């Protein structure tokens, strides 16, 4: 069963990253929407990912065939377009162009293809893929000992907190790796998993389901470093702040559990469109913004042009590459 309002949330996550990078690159409004605040969009992506995996799979029998179908589905959804972008970036970099992303040598290429490291926005794909395998462990626990999932999650959160999120990064024979980005992302996947566990069973009283809870999304810009009334270092630590985790979890909970499914702000065709192209938009918007910024145009014109071109590229990528490749992989896997 599709939860339509999550399409808009996914699209909103991609647009948060887009606006942040546009603000950083062009210094639109003095960079007020930048300062690394695109992290909040990626946090939404990770919570959505954990939620949907939990919602879709934890009630299913755990077995070899089920796990195979799950891994194929997740692989088909994320990996093909990512690999194409990585290979294209490597080829362009070798020819002296950073039109896409900077992947200068075979070691950097291998780091990307092994999901150990990512340049620019590509950094978020290794944590996503690595969590797919962590989720298999959670799924195995859910088969007979679901309660242990909570113990494991709480234990991991405490361990990360008391070890100050270990900075595990470097290179092996020149191949870069960065497990720090994975560790700092885990809490957001875990929160999504916990919410997914309870989505079908948690009985929310009818009087609590209100359309106005959609405005909880306004809390996200209140955490932007240049806009936030918060005076602690939480607004700058972002990924390493459990205060930020609390706020983002509250936002996610309200949207998923308290906002009615037919909310016009979240269940609409515009949200469906941006949700559908969100992955391609996330991977491709940076090169578009960089190219548009070369032109001598008013910054507002650059914003509109960058958004239109990014959405157009993302849509073409979705219909010509992302969706056909995913279907072909799933079809081939099901044929065996």
UniProtKB/TrEMBL annotation:
Pfam families, alphabetized: Acyl_transf_3
Keyword Membrane: yes
GO CC, one annotated term: membrane
Keywords, ordered alphabetically: Acyltransferase, Membrane, Transferase, Transmembrane, Transmembrane helix
Molecular function terms, GO-annotated: acyltransferase activity, transferring groups other than amino-acyl groups
Domain Acyltransferase: 5-315
TM helices/strands, residue ranges: 12-31, 37-58, 79-101, 121-141, 148-169, 181-199, 239-259, 303-321
One of the GO biological process terms: polysaccharide biosynthetic process
Stated name of the protein: Acyltransferase
Organism classification: Bacteria, Pseudomonadati, Pseudomonadota, Gammaproteobacteria, Alteromonadales
């Amino acid at each position: 069963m599709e939860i339509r309002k999550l399409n808009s949330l996914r699209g909103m996550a991609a647009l948060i990253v887009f606006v942040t990078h546009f603000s950083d690159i062009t210094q639109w409004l003095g960079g007020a929407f930048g300062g690394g605040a695109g992290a909040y969009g990626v946090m939404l992506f990770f919570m959505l990912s954990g939620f949907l995996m939990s919602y879709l799979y934890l009630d299913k029998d755990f077995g070899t065939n089920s796990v195979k179908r799950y891994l194929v589905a997740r692989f088909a959804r994320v990996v093909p377009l990512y690999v194409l972008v990585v290979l294209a970036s490597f080829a362009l970099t070798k020819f002296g162009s950073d039109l896409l992303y900077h992947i200068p040598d075979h070691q950097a290429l291998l780091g990307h293809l092994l999901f150990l490291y990512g340049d620019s926005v590509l950094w978020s794909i290794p944590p996503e893929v690595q969590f797919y395998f962590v989720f298999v462990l959670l799924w195995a626990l859910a088969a007979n000992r679901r309660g242990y999932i909570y113990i494991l999650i709480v234990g991991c959160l405490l361990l990360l907190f008391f070890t100050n999120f270990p900075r595990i990064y470097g290179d092996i024979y020149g191949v870069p790796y960065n497990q720090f980005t994975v560790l700092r992302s885990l809490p957001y996947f875990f929160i999504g998993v916990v919410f997914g566990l309870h989505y079908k069973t948690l009985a929310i009283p009818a009087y609590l389901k209100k359309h106005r809870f959609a405005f909880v999304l306004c809390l996200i810009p209140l955490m932007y470093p240049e806009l936030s009334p918060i005076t602690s270092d939480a607004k700058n630590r972002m990924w390493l702040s459990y205060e930020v985790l609390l706020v983002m979890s509250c936002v996610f909970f309200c949207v998923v559990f308290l906002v009615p499914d037919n909310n016009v702000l979240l269940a609409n065709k515009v949200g469906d469109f941006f949700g559908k192209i969100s992955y391609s938009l996330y991977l491709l918007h940076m090169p578009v913004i960089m190219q548009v910024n070369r032109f001598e145009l008013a910054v507002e014109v650059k914003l509109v042009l960058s958004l239109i071109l990014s959405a157009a590229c993302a849509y073409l990528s979705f219909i010509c590459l992302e969706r056909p490749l995913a279907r072909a992989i799933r079809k081939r896997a099901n044929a065996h």
